[in-house]
Structure formats: structure tokens, C-alpha cells
Amino acid sequence: MRIRHGHIVTALAAAMLTLVAAMPRNGAPADGANGTARNGSAQKVLLIVTPAEMAWADSEIEERLMERLTRHGSIQVSIANAPAPGLPAFPLSCYRTDSLVAWGKAAGADFVVVVRVESARLERRKDIHVPLLFHRYMTVGAIEGELRVVDVSRARLEIAEPFKIEEKGPRAFQATMDDDIHDPDLHLTAAAKVRFFQKLEEELAGMLVKRIGSVIRMR
């Protein structure tokens, strides 16, 4: 029986196409690797948020993170800040990866996400000065802290990095002869502070979710 050369080429081409189709596209991990669980179920993510105290309002960063994360059906997010039935006590230190891995396994999680907000503050900065005439002060809001993401199944710390976000607020002029940074006219009202930090926390939540999404594939 003679086998024609054309038939061999056709068979090899078909085999290569089948192999390429079976490979993950665009470098995406296979099922079960930083994405969809092997059985097709949603990845379970435990979120721990430690907000900073603010004198003018309660922080809403936890709610804003949950709002954004739960838009993705490929993950199941649970808040783990408070003790819950069946959930082991949180480790005394969030800096020990082995403790976070053991805690995540006991809780049945695939990932543990820790957001620690260390500082949320308002600053007044003198950005313009015209000698003998006036100053211009600028209000700046800043939030900074640390983000950690632990892959429980791989027992690996995927992200451990600081974050900081700043937002420029209203500006106010003051005569040089006054030169008083504590002048009430330079300060935001209580209501304006609340609105200002609501906007800042919304931007921070978007930034953090984008960073988390670089490790946990979300759809």
C-alpha cells in the first residue's frame, strides 16, 4: 500500500491544529491555576481589611472593595474580619505566610487577601508664595498601607507591597500678612471631608482590585 506525501502533510497539520487548540491562550494559566477551580466552581477568596481611623467619618474601603470584587462571578468573596461560625481565629500576625496559608486551608479558601490601611490623612501644602502679597494653600488627601495576596493552594505569597494614593483638593488664598495655616478658611468643612474621602476610597478600591486581578483571574 502506497502512502502519498500529501496525505502525510494533511495528517500532521490536523494534529498540530488539535494541539494548539488545547493549549491555554495568551499565556493564561490552565484551569485551577490562579483562575477557575478545576471543577469549574468559583474561587473562594477571604478578604481581611484593617482600615485606618478617621476623625471625620468611618472608613468605607471594605464596602467599596466588596462591591467591586463581587461583580466577578468567577470568585466568591467573604469578609473575614470578625469571628464567624466554622471560621478559625485569624493569625496573630499577617506577616507570616505560613500562618496565613494554614488559616486559609482551615477556612477552605483558595486565596487570602489582606488590606491594611495604615494612614488616611488630610494635608495642607503651600504651593504658591508671592512675597508680601499672598500664599496659596492646597488640600491634599492621602491614603497609604499594604496589600498582601496569598495563594493558599500553592502556599505562596503572591503580592506583598505598599500602596499609596493621593488626591488634590480645593485651593485657598491667604494674604501674606496673615500667614496662618490654621485659618478656618483654609480647612474643608466636615461634610466636604466626608465627600472628599469617599471619592478617594473609591479610587483606591479600583486600584487595589486591579492589582488583585493580576494574581486572581476574575471574570
Walkthrough of the structure:
- By secondary structure, the chain is an alpha/beta fold.
- The protein is built from 4 helices and 5 strands; from the N terminus they run αβαβαβββα.
- Strands 2-1-3-4-5 form a 5-stranded mixed β-sheet.
- α2 links the parallel β1 and β2.
- The longest helix is centred in the C-terminal third of the chain and has 23 residues.
- It is elongated and about 65 Å long.
- The N terminus is likely disordered.
Distance between the termini: 53 Å
Globally, the shape reads elongated
Count of DSSP strands: 5
Taking strands numbered 1, 2, ... along the chain, how are they ordered across the largest sheet? 2-1-3-4-5
Sheet-strand content, in percent, reads 25-35%
Give the % helix: 25-40%
Write a short abstract of this structure.
The protein has 219 residues and is α/β, with parallel strands linked by helices.
Question: Which terms would index this structure?
Answer:
5-stranded mixed β-sheet, single chain, 4 helices, alpha/beta, 219 residues, 5 strands
Per-chain topology:
Layout: H1 5-22, E1 43-50, H2 61-69, E2 75-79, H3 97-106, E3 111-130, E4 134-151, E5 156-175, H4 190-212
Helix pairs in contact: 2-4
